[in-house]
Amino acid sequence: MDEGLDHNTQSPFTGEEHVKYNKLMEASGEGLYEGYTTFSKLSFLLHLFHLKCMFHWSAESFNKLHELLLDAFPIIKEFPSSYYEGMKVINDLGLGYEKIHACPNDCMLYWGEFSEKSECHICHASRWKIVKGKEGDVSEKGKETCKKDDGIIRHPADGEAWKKFDEKYLEFAADPRSVRLGLASDGFNPYRLMNTNYSTWPVVLIPYNLPPWLCMKSSSFILSTIIPGKSGPGMDIDVYLQPLIHELKLLWLGVDAFDSYSGKNFKLRAALHSTINDFPAYAMLSGWSTRGYKACPSCTDSTYSYRFGEYGLAPVPASGTEVLKQQDKVKYVYGKSKNVPKKRGRKNADDDDDDADLVLWKKKRTLLGMGNSRDDRSAREALEGKNIKSHLWIDPQGDIPPAPYTMSNEEKERFLKVLKKLKVPDGYGSNLQRCVNLKKRKLINMKSHDNHILMQDILPVALRASNATKVIDLLEELSDFFKKICSTTIDTRELDAIQSKLVLTLCKMEIEFLPTFFTIMVHLIIHLVDEVRLGGPVLYRWMYPIER
């Protein structure tokens, strides 16, 4: 709340909200004590609560500090006497939260028209748990940066999706205070060190109106929803997102807000620009299955995964209008159906070739041969069944000949010793030295960002320094692609060249690597350039800030 607000400004509120509004205006305009103008009573209280949240103070420690300040500075007048009294003022700002009951079977929320119900209207489970013994506006600098049109993509505002949206909704785009939001969600277990089964799914909103140097800071994120439970919500996450979707629809129509810069009221509008999630969570939020033969959400039904190799023209992704037409045919009911469908078994194969194709999309690991390797006997038998790569077939003695990317124990040791001695700048990544296990010749306890750093920068250097594999040049090309695509700025005139080079790199990889390497995660690389062209730089839509 700005201390310089005009108290005579008309308020859009009435009744009880009008009283709260006037109290907050008075508190924001009244100095902490007579003659002091640096802090108002309200801003000082907000600073205290901000420090409490940042450094995890307990309510008791907050009260003790509060008492010390009032004893040391008795000139402070009519200030809340405790944490409880301060919370009353903070709650009037509307920064609190609302607890919404949910059906234990994930069927519905006791919200909206169902807020007074005592049982689920789908599965009729009781709302109550029986407990034993008890009863029942963007800155000018940021605006200027986001609106440059010099062919350089440096912000989501430079992407085609943002520009097409502006062309379609001129009134929304004309107001620089209209907000574009990204929605991110990911689950984690806050009690994993206690060996407790528990899941927490935060749903975070990211305001993309902010300039690049503020957009992805955690201080800019808006925690909109928390979904706790013994397990993740799975495909029933839409049940828990209903309040958020309701509020996003209201924001699209516009809500009353006050512009402290101009001193006027206006209609604040917001639109959901994109979603951020890992690939398994993509299925939960979109409804498109990310497993099986049609796992690619861009190729959809045209995903070619039954046989090794892809032939013909690349499939054309469905437009937003086409997707909406497909959704019109869907009759969806929240919650779990009473008739649980049986698990689908393996489809009947017409011949032995189809059985061999089922091997090609298994999830396994490569290069260091950790755990389940993609290079196993069944993969080599599949090559023989397809009559390809005869030099990699199992020999008559039953031995598996080494592939070009295979590393011997000596090569693994040289490669891992390079990583063991590696030193990187503080904040660049975690300590990779701790992830190296020379005794077992493997990398352990690596986070997703560690793998990203390894793939983008360190892997080609470490492999070349240790001369550990015959596909160094090929992996260097792949690393170079990730480095370019993850840059903070990308020239749109270079995107076609990056895409063409990637296609050639993947073709070279098909020559050297086994078909079992080409899982859906490798296939998705081919769509990353289009994602950048549409949505802007990768760093505004990747998971690392959310996971941290």
Please describe the structure with a list of short key phrases separated by commas or semicolons.
10 strands; alpha+beta; 4-stranded mixed sheet; disordered N terminus; globular; two-stranded antiparallel sheet
Structure description:
It is a single chain. The protein is α+β, with helices and mostly antiparallel strands. Among the domains are: 15-91, no CATH class; 138-287, no CATH class. 37% of the residues lie in helices and 9% in strands. The chain contains 21 helices and 10 strands. It has helices spanning 15-29, 41-54, 59-72, 83-91, 140-146, 160-168, 170-174, 212-215, 237-240, 242-253, 279-286, 320-328, 352-357, 377-386, 409-420, 448-466, 472-485, 495-512, 520-523, 528-535, 544-547, and strands at 152-153, 179-185, 199-207, 222-229, 255-259, 264-268, 270-276, 436-437, 442-443, 490-491. A 4-stranded mixed β-sheet has the order 4-3-2-7, covered by helices on one side. The longest helix has 19 residues, at 448-466. The two termini are 30 Å apart. The model is unreliable at 1-7, 132-146 and 342-365 (pLDDT under 50).
